Amino acid sequence: MDYDLITIGAGGGAYPAAFRLARLGLKILMVDSKGVMSGNCLAEGCVPSKSVREVAEHWERQRRFSSFGLKGDLVLDFERMMNHKDSVQKVRYQQHDGELSRTPGLSLLKGKAKMVSKHDISVLTDDGERLFRGKHILIASGSDVFIPPIPGANLCLTSHDLYKMNSAIHSCPSSVIVIGGGYVGLETATFFAAFGSSVTVLELGDQLLPGIDSEIVSMLVPQLSSLITPVLSAQVLSVTSQSEGKKRVKYRHNQTEVDISAEMVFMAAGRRPVIPDGAREAGVVMGPRGIEVDDRMRTNVPHVFACGDVNGRTPLFHAAVRQSLVCAHQIMGGEHASDRMDFGSVPTTVFTLPAASYVGLTPSILKERSIPFKRATYFFEEDSRAQIFGETAGGIHLFFHSETLKLLGGYVVGIDAENLIGEIGLAVSAGLSAMDLASFADQHPMASEGISKAARSLF
User: Which domains are present in the chain?
Assistant: First the structure.
């Protein structure tokens, strides 16, 4: 069966292109092992984890304001919260199904895809193997949890176990050990700490959130819950079961072996791209982070594209969506296509409590590249919204080229960081200057007014 486009995967790197091209009359097939759209983001990633995160944030604020007259202790119904998470996932799956059913020329097939040539895809389905030919192939197979070769790693829970629909976790553990201090591990640590769990985070490196500018991390970490104990340079040696359902983790720290126990051990050692079978044999070149692509999402093989986590460039759902649309425009326009992916203006948020967000060039990169810059700051201790919520730690940091005052990047740590970074990211993408930002009347009393106020400090 011939198609104009076959996508391997049906998540954020695949379905935007599929819908865009199907609505132009092209014949599209999406192949996905889950048999549903939206990939890991909806299945076990950003949507369910943020459903939990929003409850955790409101829970912390409720406790802060309870002194105004609430009598009695607040009691969390953990199972009802998890049911709420499930209901959000169900609604979104229904929305995706409805959109798919209303789009002629677009099909979704459940199965495992394999590239058998540069144009041919075999799909192992419940009914056997089927063969398809695509004029264009889009690899959007995403990423999966990385499980390091640690004895007893099978005793640990992962993001799949915790955030999937109908999770087996129905109650909040009193103690949690998190293996890995990256964004998944640290976010989950702050959620459990908000609900009262004692959390130990074991990070192999010498910094929490490895790969993120140390200046951002140093502003965030002091604001984390006192119930979180981070241990850096901790090499986990084994995980074993104990009596009464507890788990014991042995790790090496400062040349000393240490044993600790907890009700739950959460494995968050990172993620790695899922490379479809046959991709290498078809000639698709791999890079250090995944499949190599250019800014038009093209691999080295003509007519084969790779979008989303599988290329490792910006492993975020919203980045995958934008990459997918760039791919669609490239297919539509061929060599005349003008759309390109701007990897440098994709905002990133670590959804801890509080959150930390950044976009563009941050201080360490600017210094490494010897780019002259000026910093503009706005601290939340002077912000009216932060004062209203009693969350005055952190602030906004913007970085402008010293000569042109063009905005190069910025970061936010603290209240509304995940929302503020969108405005900053748009300004970076559009090449706006400090004067452009300073001239905009951000509304009061919102933390966003700190963006224009920071910019005005340069004049």
Answer: 2-144+272-343 (3.50.50.60), 153-269 (3.50.50.60), 354-456 (3.30.390.30)
Q: Above 90 in pLDDT, residue 142?
A: yes
Task: Take residue 220 and report the two structure tokens written for it.
Answer: 């965030």
Query: pTM to 2 decimals?
Result: 0.95
| pLDDT digits 0-9 by tens, 178-224 | 999 999 999 999 999 999 999 999 999 999 999 999 999 999 999 99
Backbone angles phi, psi at 318, to 5 degrees: -65, -30
Read off the pLDDT band of 72 (50, 70, 90): low
| 275 DSSP assignment | P
Which of 161, 208, 210 has the alpha carbon at shortest distance from 186? 208
Q: Residues near 352 by Cβ (< 8 Å), separated by ≥ 6?
A: 183, 186, 187, 189, 190, 220, 224
Euclidean distance between the first and final Cα of the chain, in Å? 64
Distance CA 177, CA 197 (A): 10
pLDDT digits (tens, 9 = 90+) for 398-408: 999 999 999 99
Instruction: State how far the Cα of 40 lies from the Cα of 11, in Å rounded to an integer.
Output: 7
- For residue 342, pLDDT over 80 is answered with yes
Q: Is 318 a catalytic residue?
A: no
Name the residue among 266, 265, 270, 261 with its Cα closest to residue 243.
261
Binding site as annotated, residues for FAD: 50, 309
Specify burial of residue 159 (Cβ count, 10 A radius: 0-12, 13-18, 19+).
buried
One-letter identity of residue 220: L
Please tell me the distance from the alpha carbon of residue 29 to that of residue 7, in angstroms, as a whole number: 6
* Residues flagged as binding site: 50, 180-187, 203, 270, 309
Set 96, 318, 336, 444: catalytic member: 444
Give tens-digit pLDDT for 21-45. Answer: 999 999 999 999 999 998 999 999 9
pLDDT at residue number 405: 98
> What residues are designated binding site for NAD(+)?
180-187, 203, 270
